[in-house]
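Fold it.
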Amino acid sequence: MNNTAETQRQLLDHDICVHIFTASAAMVGVCLTVIGIIKMVISLRHRDMLGEDLLAINAMAYLVACLMSYWALRTRSLGRNHRLERVADVLFLAALTLTAVNAAFITWAVSSVH
């Protein structure tokens, strides 16, 4: 691989890491907001939902992805940087998948409670 291609790859990796960092931090806030909304619905309906627990786990997964991407941005070791970026990438995609599962679960739970 020539030097120009390697430089472009490093810039692209850095760019992806920045996007994971910002999106993960935003998604922690989204999860916390939805937990608050669910808490209000639960208090009005006097029922408990597993969805808030799943969202708390989801928020933690986004937080870990955010911290891993931040660590990758701050590290000076290229090898460590790539490993941390991969971990952050996998965690972010897993958390994103869990978000979709949570949305389906919450939709089902809210629509089935009358």
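The first helix runs from residue 3 to 45.
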